[in-house]
Amino acid sequence: MDKLDDNILVLTNVTKRFGGLVAVDDVSLSIKRGEIFALIGPNGAGKTTLFNNVTGLFKPTSGHVILNGKDITGSRPHEVARLGIARTFQNIRLFDYMTCLDNVRVGRHVRMHAKLWDGLFKLPAERREEERVTEEAMELLRFVGIARQANQYARNLPYGQQRRLEIARALATEPKLLLLDEPAAGFTPQEKVELMALVRKILNRGITVWLIEHDMKVVMGISERIVVLDHGEKIAEGPPEEVRTDPRVIEAYLGKSA
Amino acid sequence: MSNRVAAPPRSILARLRLRERIRDRDTAIYGILLLIALVFPAIALYTSDGSTYLIALAGHAGTYVLLAIGLNVVVGFAGLLDLGYAAFFAIGAYTYALFASQQLLASPIHHAYHFPFWLMMFVGLLIAASAGAVLGFPTLRLRGDYLAIVTLGFGEIVPQVFQNFDQWTGGINAIGGIDQPTLPAWVTGPWAGADSISIVAPFSFSFDPIAYYVLIFILVSVAIVLVNNLHRSRLGRAWMAIREDEVAAAAMGINTVTTKLLAFAIGASFSGFAGAYYGASFGLVSPDDFLFIVSITVLVMIVLGGMGSIPGVIVGAITIYFILNWFLPLLPPAVQSLASSIGLGSLNARSGDWPGLGNETQNVTLLVFGLILVTMMLLRPQGLFPSRVREQELKHATGQEDEAAIEQAHA
Questions:
Q1: Residue A20 CA to chain centroid, in angstroms?
Q2: Average pLDDT of the residues in B184-213
Q3: Is residue A122 left, alpha or beta, with left meaning phi > 0 and alpha meaning psi from -120 to 50?
Q4: A175 contact partners, CB below 8 Å, separation of at least 6
Q5: Considering all CA atoms of chain A, what is the largest pairwise distance in Å, rounded to the nearest integer?
Q6: Alpha-carbon distance B81 to B75, whole Å?
Q7: Which of B94, B103, B107, B106 is nearest to B279 (CA)?
Q8: What is the dihedral angle through the alpha carbons of B229, B235, B239, B245, rounded to the nearest 10 degrees?
Q9: Where are the alpha helices (DSSP H) in A145-184?
Q10: Nearest chain B Cα to A99, which residue?
Q11: How many of the other CB atoms lie within 10 Å of CB of B375?
C-alpha cells in the first residue's frame, strides 16, 4: 500500500452527472506531493469539470476528494481555497477593473486577519497587515515578472501577462496544490518556454502543480505523470513516454484508424 | 539669511504634501465640500434676512447624503442592486419615533418610552443592520435582476407594515411629537455664555435648524471617514472582487455570502442612522415618507454622482436634492416674473383652458426634472465625479461599440 503521506490529493471514484450526461465518470487518481501532474484529453473530455469538482464549484455526484488525508468532498469554494487548493481558469477570470496589485491582494484575503472593525477604524494592526500584504503582493508580482504593471488595471494587460497575473493571484492564497487550467493556451512558443520555467519555479516553492494542458510539448516537457481523460473516463495514466505511445490515447486524439 | 528663513516652511509644506493632495481629485472635492459646508450657514442667513429655511433644507439634504453613502456601499462597491433601500431608512426612523414619543402609550403595552436620541441613533443603526442581514440571508444567493426584484418587494412591504400595524405605529396618522435631542448640561456648561454661571439647563435642539445642521455635518463627516476606511480595507477589496467576478472571488477564498451580507448590513446601517436623524429633525414620521420614490431618488443620486466614488455620490446627493427641493419649487414664480418683466404679464392670468403661466410651469416641473436628468446622463454618462473604475468601464464599453461598428461596416 502507498503511504498516505505521499499523496497530497486523492480522488476516489469521482463521478459528476448533469442530468443524463456523465461529464466525469468514476475517475480515481492520486497526486504525489511535490510533483507536476498533468491532465490531458480531447475537448469536452471533462477535464475542467473535474477541476470544478475538486475546487468546490461543483459537488461530485458520487466519490470523494481527499486533500492531505482529509475528505473535502462538497466543500464550498472559499473553504477549499482556505484548505490550500488554488486555481486559475481556462478563460481568464481576473478582476478586470482592479489593479494588478489589488488582484493579488485579494488573493491574500484568505490569509489575512483584519475584521470589520479593524478596517472601519483603520486600527494599527490593520495598517501593519495592509503594509505587509502589499509587500507580499509585490513580491509575487516580481516572482511572475509583472511588477512594473502593478498599478495597471488587470483589464489593460496583454494576454500573456494576464495569465501570469492569474497565477500570482492564485499563489497569494498560499496553496499547497495549484491547479492550472490550460495555462499555455494561446501562447507563442517563446511564452510557453517561459511558462514552463515559471511552473518549475513554483514547484521549487514546495507547491504541487496539477495542470490541464493541450500542448503536448508543454505537457511532455514538465510533467512527471499524466492522466488522460476521454468522455469523462480515465483511459490512461503514467509517465509521458508511456502515455504517448498508448494506443487508446492515440485513438482518443486521432480517432480510430480504419 | 533669507534662505534659512524660507527653508522651514517649505519643509512643512513638503511634509503635508499639499500640492500632491490638491492634485488628487477626491481630496480636492472633499476640501471644497468642507469649505462650502462651513460657510454655507453664514451665507444662507445673510442672504435670506436671518431666515433659517435654507439651513433646514441643507440639513435635510444631509440625510440624503447619508443615504447615498450607504447605498453606494451596496450598489457601488459590492455591485448588488438594491431597489428597496428606503425600507431600512423607515426602520431607523420608526425605531427612534416609537421609543422617543408618547406613541407606545396607546399601544397594547401602555407605556411610553423616551430614550435619548444619542442612544437610539445607534439602536436604529443596529436594528436596520440586522434587518439588512435578515433580508440578505435568504436573498443574496440571487443575482442581478432577481435580487433587485426581491429588494423592491421588501421596500414596498416595510412601509405597508408600519402603516397596517396602526395599533403600534399609529398607521396612516403617523407618529408625531417625537423627542428632540438634548445635550447634557455639562456640554453646554461653562462655555455657554453669561447665564452658565447659574444652573445650566440641558441644551435641547427644539427644531433649531442650525443645531441639526451641525449634527448632520458631524454625522456625514464620520460616515465619510469610516466608508473611506472600509473601501481601502480587506473587506472593501473583497466587495470589489465580488462585483468583478463572483466565481473567481470565491475561488480566492472569499466567502461570498457573508461578504455580501456585510455589504447589505453596513449599507442598511447608514440608513438606520439617517432614519433616526430624520425622525428627530421633523418630529414626525409617517409611512408615506418611505415610499419607492425615496429608494429611486437615492439610486438616481449615486448613479448621477458616480457610482462607487464616495465624493461623487455626495455631490450627486446634494445636487439632486437641491434641484428637487429648491430649484424646481422656485421655477413657477421665476417664470411668472420673467413673463411680467418682458411684457407678457397677460400670460400669468388664468383664462379659459389656460391655467396661467405659473400653474402651467408647476405642471411641468417634473418634466423639467426629467430633462435635467437625461441631459446630465447624456453629458456625463459616468456620473459627475466617477470612480476610476467606472470611468474605465465606460471607456471600454464605448470602445467595444466602436469596434463592433467598424466590424459591421466591413461586413
A1: 28
A2: 67
A3: left
A4: A81, A84, A85, A86, A207
A5: 73
A6: 5
A7: B94
A8: 140
A9: 159-171
A10: B389
A11: 10
How far apart are the C-alpha atoms of A176 and A172, rounded to whole Å?
Answer: 11
Break chain B into its structural domains and give their ranges.
52-403
Catalogue all structural domains in chain A, each as residue range(s) with its CATH number: 1-84+175-258 (3.40.50.300), 96-174 (no CATH)
Alpha carbons within 13 angstroms on the beta-carbon side of residue B261 total 15
Q: Is A248 on the interface with B (CB under 8 A)?
A: no
Q: What is the mean pLDDT of residues A163-167?
A: 97
CB neighbour burial string for B1-31, b if at least 16 within 10 angstroms, e if fewer: eeeeeeeeeeeeeeeeeeeeeeeeebeebbe
Q: Provide the strand spans (E) within chain A.
A: 7-18, 21-32, 36-40, 62-67, 70-71, 85-87, 177-181, 208-212, 225-230, 233-238
Q: Which residues of A touch B234 (CB under 8 A)?
A: 109, 112, 114, 119, 126, 129-130
Dist CA A234 CA A248 (whole Å): 11
Contact B237 A106 (CB under 8 A): yes
Report CA dihedral (B367, B64, B30, A129) to the nearest 10 degrees.
Answer: -130
How far is Cα B146 from Cα B148, in angstroms, rounded to an integer? Answer: 5
Query: What is the per-residue pLDDT across B80-95, written as a single tens digit (0 to 9) for each?
Result: 999 999 999 999 999 9
Pairing of strands A85-87, A36-40: unpaired
Cβ–Cβ under 8 Å, residues B88 and B74: no
Please tell me the distance from the alpha carbon of residue B35 to that of residue B42, in angstroms, as a whole number: 12
Q: What is the pLDDT of residue A214?
A: 81
Q: Report the C-alpha gap between B117 and B279 in whole angstroms.
A: 10
Cell numbers given for A221: 516537457
What is the pLDDT averaged over residues B321-350?
90
The answer to whether A212 and A39 have CB atoms below 8 angstroms apart is yes
With residue B204 as reference, give the H or E element that holds it: strand B203-204
* B266 grid coordinates: 453596513
Identify all chain B residues contacting A77, using CB atoms and an 8 Å cutoff.
247, 250-251
DSSP designation for A188: -
Backbone angles phi, psi at A188, to 5 degrees: -75, 160
Parallel, antiparallel, or unpaired: how do β-strands A70-71 and A62-67 relate? Answer: antiparallel
- Residues on chain A touching B238 (C-beta within 8 angstroms): 106, 109
- Please state the ipTM of this predicted complex: 0.93
Q: Which fold has domain B52-403?
A: ABC transporter involved in vitamin B12 uptake, BtuC (1.10.3470)
In chain A, what residues touch B396 (CB-CB under 8 Å)? 155
Hey, are the CB atoms on A93 and B248 less than 8 Å from each other? Answer: yes
A108 CB-near residues (< 8 Å, 6+ apart)? A133, A136, A137, A172, A173
Residue B342: pLDDT over 50: yes
